Amino acid sequence: MTAEKPIVLRLGKWPFSNEKWDKLKEIATVVDSEAKNREEFLNELKTKHNNVTHVVRTFPSVEQTGRFDSEIISALPDSVVAVSHNGAGYDQIDPQPLTDRNIQLSNVTTPVEAPTALTAVYLTLATMRKYQIGHNSLVQGNWTNPDIGRGVKLGKDPEGQTVGILGMGGIGRAIRDRLQPFGFEKILYYNRSRLDADLEKDAEYVGFDELLAQSDVLVVSVPLNPKTRHLINKEAISKMKDGVIIINTARGAVIDEQELIKELQLGKVGAFGADVFEHEPEVPKELYELPNVVSLPHMGTWTTQALKNMEDFTVDNVEHHIRTGELLTIVPEQKGHEFKHSAWV
């Protein structure tokens, strides 16, 4: 147990979690970064925040600090024991330099699962049934043209179709659970390792190439890291069924976007539904203007409930660490590493 209160440095805005922060302030001192750019943040760490113990950050706070890479992490004071990120994807942060400095890293897990899965369901149904094309046809006045029958080619129902889920973590399993009642013939998945039976449920574990070959709809749900960047590339797409539908609610750079555009134009990929893009917020016009693309501006957790739950979860992570020396959630790259942190209260 340490004598002084821990100091929590907040990056970004936290409009939904005031009650949680007020509670945390009973056992910790909370300070906010005023940095407007990376240079100012690095200077703050040297002059104003050289005794902080916990850092909490939002996804948009990258505009304040830039990427949490080895330069930033090496500048953190020795007093820092944990970094808590308000988001499921933590590709803005390099875990290894934190591990090397005995700093734990947490992300948000369960609060993002349901809202992200609902977004994947919407994109799946919209692309299969060609709802976006139908909407555009109505707006363009083609519905009443008897020669083209609503201006939309026939879509597909889930009946007889196989869904493949690439990545069966918490979000992948939430997607599976919400797609299953729609009546797909099979739900396959590929993961780094096979799930235990209680987590696997009725999904079938297959190899990566088999997943590509069998899926009528491929749902991407893997985190972005050096191993998954452009995992879906020209070679991978060549192994898929002609007319495959690809859904991405993970990270845009898991897919080679330029190659995807070519395959959509050629018809090898029949449709694409995405909430994420490789160079957000920049999205190629040649991609989103394709009629067989349903695109959203990263809205997976864009609800009042989801944002509150995520912020509260992040604060809970900090409070738990202060009370126990351990985070509620720790990123996979740090699992198995022995951190020796003391509780404050």
Automatic annotation (TrEMBL):
<dbReference type="Pfam" id="PF02826">
    <property type="entry name" value="2-Hacid_dh_C"/>
</dbReference>
<dbReference type="Pfam" id="PF00389">
    <property type="entry name" value="2-Hacid_dh"/>
</dbReference>
<feature type="domain" description="D-isomer specific 2-hydroxyacid dehydrogenase catalytic">
    <location>
        <begin position="62"/>
        <end position="331"/>
    </location>
</feature>
<dbReference type="InterPro" id="IPR036291">
    <property type="entry name" value="NAD(P)-bd_dom_sf"/>
</dbReference>
<dbReference type="InterPro" id="IPR006139">
    <property type="entry name" value="D-isomer_2_OHA_DH_cat_dom"/>
</dbReference>
<comment type="similarity">
    <text>Belongs to the D-isomer specific 2-hydroxyacid dehydrogenase family.</text>
</comment>
<feature type="domain" description="D-isomer specific 2-hydroxyacid dehydrogenase NAD-binding">
    <location>
        <begin position="122"/>
        <end position="300"/>
    </location>
</feature>
<dbReference type="GO" id="GO:0051287">
    <property type="term" value="F:NAD binding"/>
</dbReference>
<dbReference type="InterPro" id="IPR050223">
    <property type="entry name" value="D-isomer_2-hydroxyacid_DH"/>
</dbReference>
<dbReference type="InterPro" id="IPR029752">
    <property type="entry name" value="D-isomer_DH_CS1"/>
</dbReference>
<dbReference type="InterPro" id="IPR029753">
    <property type="entry name" value="D-isomer_DH_CS"/>
</dbReference>
<keyword id="KW-0560">Oxidoreductase</keyword>
<dbReference type="GO" id="GO:0030267">
    <property type="term" value="F:glyoxylate reductase (NADPH) activity"/>
</dbReference>
<dbReference type="GO" id="GO:0005829">
    <property type="term" value="C:cytosol"/>
</dbReference>
<dbReference type="GO" id="GO:0047964">
    <property type="term" value="F:glyoxylate reductase (NADH) activity"/>
</dbReference>
<dbReference type="GO" id="GO:0009436">
    <property type="term" value="P:glyoxylate catabolic process"/>
</dbReference>
<dbReference type="GO" id="GO:0016618">
    <property type="term" value="F:hydroxypyruvate reductase [NAD(P)H] activity"/>
</dbReference>
<protein>
    <recommendedName>
        <fullName>Glyoxylate reductase</fullName>
    </recommendedName>
</protein>
<dbReference type="InterPro" id="IPR006140">
    <property type="entry name" value="D-isomer_DH_NAD-bd"/>
</dbReference>
